[in-house]
Amino acid sequence: MRVLITHNYYLQLDAKQWEAQKPYAPLATLYAAAALRKAGHEVRFHDVQFEASPEHFAAVLDKVKPDAVVLYEDGFNYLTKMCLTNMRDAAYTMIAMAKKVGAEVIISGSDSTDHFEEYLEKGADVIIFGEADETLLKLLEVGSGKSEVSGIAFKKGNEIIQKPRGPVLKDLDSLPFPAYDLLDIKPYQNAWKQHGYFSVNMATTRGCPFKCNWCAKPIYGNRYNSHSAKYIVELMQYMQQFFSFDHIWFADDIFGLKPGWVQEFSDEMKAAKLRIPFKIQSRADLLVVENTVEALASAGCDEVWMGAESGSQKVLDAMDKGTKIEQIKEATVLMKKHGIKPCFFLQFGYPGEDWEDIQATLKMVDEWQPFDIGVSVSYPLPGTKFYENVKSQLIDRANWTDSDELLMMYKGTFSPEFYKKLHRFLHRRFRAAAAKRNFIQTKNLKKAAAFFYHKPLEILEKSRFEKLLEKEL
Fold first, then answer.
1. Residue 233 confidence (pLDDT)
2. 340 close to 293: Cβ distance less than 8 angstroms
3. Domain ranges, ordered by start, for the chain
4. CA distance 328 to 368
5. Per-residue pLDDT tens for 328-352?
6. Sheet harboring 301-309: ordered strands across?
7. Antiparallel, parallel or unpaired: β 205-206 and 278-282
8. Structural element, H or E, at residue 96
9. C-beta atoms surrounding 155 within 10 Å
10. Bridge pairing between strands 126-128 and 104-108
């Protein structure tokens, strides 16, 4: 079959990410393109990331004349997991365009899994649930015999047929390398130039076995399967045939959970004489083991984003996080000892969080001085215990429009405006404190200028926040 494979993440429809200019290629889409090609299909890949809107997609369809159009979201990218309505609307437009030219439309992604009925009503022929690699190949093989395929939903007349999910792919090394030869890398390189380096994305695993009750896992679920360290290093070398890069973001939910994997990875990197700085996502309880942190540093780990979430043990327990405040501190100290930059993911507004809990989080950031922070409000997504607890309140809105909206969609302890002002205040306070530390350590005049830029903004945001806090307490 002639297959047009694409995705529906338009960077310009997410103003915050467009301004940041730190784009990553649609990794899962490129894996799927490689698998389709290996199975003998005529594959055309179209990357929409840098286009302003789906308007151009009609011309692509006219040129390719595909038998099937596959909208395959990058399930490794946290931005697609947010199920932003801007991207959903873009998908609906692309579906309509594809149906107009008579193509079969197959969708795989977090949002289409959560809202499969809506996607089918908009004209999609098949929605794939969960891990889609093998399911997609089977769908194209059986043609009209969809009822034989597990893990999909489709319409039969006016009825929606939903098939149970199929087996999980355990041997990740059996996957062909992503089809980087189909990717135009230049727009990505140009976007990263302003940052002084070029970062690419990779994934060593699929899934996460931990059960934080706010975390949605519609694609890879609660299991955890891993590539071998050898496969990942060979993939790096394969990528270097197509473009050079200076940095890697490993997009795993949890990096290096398999016992001994990080040590094996460090050994493979040394054997291949590779030294590429990288950042990962992990948990505090995994980062209190010194030989693991040592191996990460030895392999080239520069930055770790840790799901700290809150400085209150009460809130962590309510989230079923499974970590302790003491572990966050211990992991932070240990990473700094080995030259790794600890970064905190934080979220405010989880049900039951009060002002004392928020103060504990602010204190944690002030005292433990992470290298960077990412701040959000709790975001209920289908398939989670958290969502079930608050879904009766999600009457008007259940998803953000873009990644910067940060709207509280259920009733928290404080007003939505409170959390927006808290977000701005914390960021300003953090930037001012970091700039001050950098100046003290380096005596660099540029660092001093950064402090005098951030400090007045911190004072302004503090004043605004405290006025609102006084009203709400």
1. 98
2. yes
3. 2-162
4. 9
5. 999 999 999 999 999 999 999 999 9
6. 199-202, 247-250, 278-282, 301-309, 341-348, 372-377
7. unpaired
8. helix 85-100
9. 17
10. parallel
Q: Could you tell me the CA-to-CA distances from 343 to 192, 310, 365 in Å, in that order?
A: 21, 13, 10
Structure confidence by residue, pLDDT tens digits, 214-267: 999 999 988 999 999 999 999 999 999 999 999 999 999 999 999 999 999 999
Q: Looking at 272-410, list the stretches that DSSP marks H as alpha helix, in order from N- to C-terminal side.
A: 290-299, 313-318, 325-337, 355-368, 385-390
Tokens describing residue 55: 């308007």
Of 405, 409, 406, which Cα lies nearest the Cα of 386? Answer: 409
CATH homologous superfamily, domain 2-162? Cobalamin-binding domain (3.40.50.280)
Q: Is 280 exposed, middle or buried (0-12, 13-18, 19+ CB in 10 A)?
A: buried
Mean pLDDT rounded to a whole number for the chain: 96
Residue type, 458: E
CA–CA distance, 279 with 305 (Å, rounded to integer): 7
Which tokens go with 38? 């290996």
Write the single-letter amino acid at 161: I
CB atoms within 10 A of CB 303: 17
Q: Is 369 helix (H, G, I), strand (E, B) or coil?
A: coil
* Structure letter (DSSP) for residue 45: E
Q: Tell me which amino acid residue 444 is.
A: N
Mode of pairing for the β-strands spanning 126-128 and 301-309:
unpaired
Which region, left, alpha or beta, applies to residue 355 given φ > 0 means left and ψ of -120 to 50 means alpha?
A: alpha
Q: Which amino acid is at 55?
A: E
Query: Length of the chain in residues, anyone?
Result: 473
What's the pLDDT tens digit per position in 46-66?
Answer: 999 999 999 999 999 999 999
pTM of the predicted structure, to 2 decimals: 0.95
Given a contact cutoff of 8 angstroms between Cβ atoms, the answer to whether 30 and 180 are in contact is yes
- The tokens for 163 are 């098939």
The residues of the chain scoring below 50 in pLDDT are: none
Structure tokens at 74: 């990058």
Please state, in angstroms and rounded to a whole number, the distance separating the CA atoms of residues 448 and 174. Answer: 52
